[in-house]
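Risk register update: the risk of archive-format incompatibility is retired. Evidence:
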Amino acid sequence: MKSSPGANSGAQTAGPTIRPDEAAHFGALAKEWWDPNGSSAMLHKLNPVRLGFVREAVDLHWGGDIASRAPLAGKTALDVGCGAGLLSEPLARLGAELTGVDAAPENVQAAAVHAERGGLDIRYMAGDIGSLDLGQFDLVASMEVIEHVADKAAFVAALADRLAPDGLMVLSTPNRTVKSRVLLVEGAELAGMIPRGTHHWDDFITPDELGDLLADAGLTMGEPRGIAFSPTRGLHLSEDMALNYIVTAVRS
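Archived output:
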């Protein structure tokens, strides 16, 4: 199932939920994705928090062995908006048969190269999630993506179509609050912590709005958890959802 560095099966560079300018923005950063001190430094710090949430959600949903190193063994997983594979690779190491999809072909190529060097068998594809023939998956993850898509309802519907009947979905995204505007957009981007143009505050979505979109797609959203920051703890799961939050969803 491993894709070669230049092979993007079913590749399409545009689609109903893809914004070409957003795809180009992130594609231009492809070579830096795996540099923990580069343009994706914030994602490297965020990844362990997201993975901790995913691991707990997987154990709770399927009632697996909480001590297992491969709780996703025998299960398929889809990482939508995978970038260069920062989340895809850990999910594969948890045992999942992993497919990663991204709007930017440059990201898919970088992801395939990195996975191959690490000996990981991951299928990567470039294109719009709604137009790729992928089938259904036990786990569907899409982290920090919905705020970048052109049509949020169509995007959530496409994610729901990829979810198996007993599947689990995990989404994370910035919240649309005064605090997120000040810290994530005006603060982090101006300070160079996040590349300029990464975030557009008006496109952020609140938990209530996301819950409504999921309900329209036939899914029930779990209780959202905040991803907060403090000088002493760094990024961590919290009851404070003012900056960012992460949720599960299952079929209603």
